[in-house]
Design a protein that fits this description.
By secondary structure, this protein is of the alpha+beta class. It contains 3 helices and 9 strands; from the N terminus they run ααββββββαβββ. The strands form 2 sheets. The protein has a 6-stranded antiparallel sheet with strand order 1-2-3-4-5-6. Helix 1 packs across helix 3. The chain starts with a helix and ends with a strand.
Length: 153
């Protein structure tokens, strides 16, 4: 799975309020929770493919979003936490005994996924596939630059 699939989980909200008319169908549950409760929380899972250095595995965690630009991902079992804000973020890695700080420029990629899901960034295509959606991010010329699968419970 591409880095952007992880980035999909590592995002913050930039636009508030968002109307249902603006949001993609795959993002409607998030916009509804934000509007009703002022925050949204979701369980998340994503697959990490095998590489020469590690076996394939599935990661699970809890994603919490709070406007205007706060996000936290707590990864189950690993004790790792990723926090993203408009001004950057932090990745706490207890097993390695380190914290990685990143700038607003590094946070821009993850932030874009939420702008797409919430309807602020129109440079994306959404296509229903079975029980979920395939989202494709587009560059300025309309060419696909990344994609992710979104399945809602």
């Amino acid at each position: 799975m591409r880095r952007s699939a992880l980035a999909l989980a590592m995002v913050a909200l930039l636009a508030w309020p968002i109307t249902d008319a603006q949001a993609l169908e795959s993002g409607r549950a998030l916009t509804q929770a934000l509007r009703e409760h002022g925050r949204a929380e979701a369980r998340l899972s994503y697959a990490l493919p095998a590489s020469p250095l590690r076996a394939a595995r599935e990661m699970r965690g809890t994603l919490v979003l709070e406007p205007p630009d706060r996000m936290r991902l707590d990864m189950a079992g690993a004790g790792e936490r990723i926090v993203v804000r408009g001004d950057g973020g932090d990745w706490l890695q207890p097993a390695a005994r380190q914290v990685v700080h990143f700038s607003s420029a590094r946070a821009a990629g993850p932030l874009r996924w939420w702008r797409v899901l919430l309807g602020e960034d129109r440079a994306a295509r959404e296509r229903r596939v079975g029980e979920g959606w395939r989202l494709t991010l587009l560059d300025a010329r309309g060419a696909a630059v990344d994609s992710a699968w979104v399945a809602l419970d």
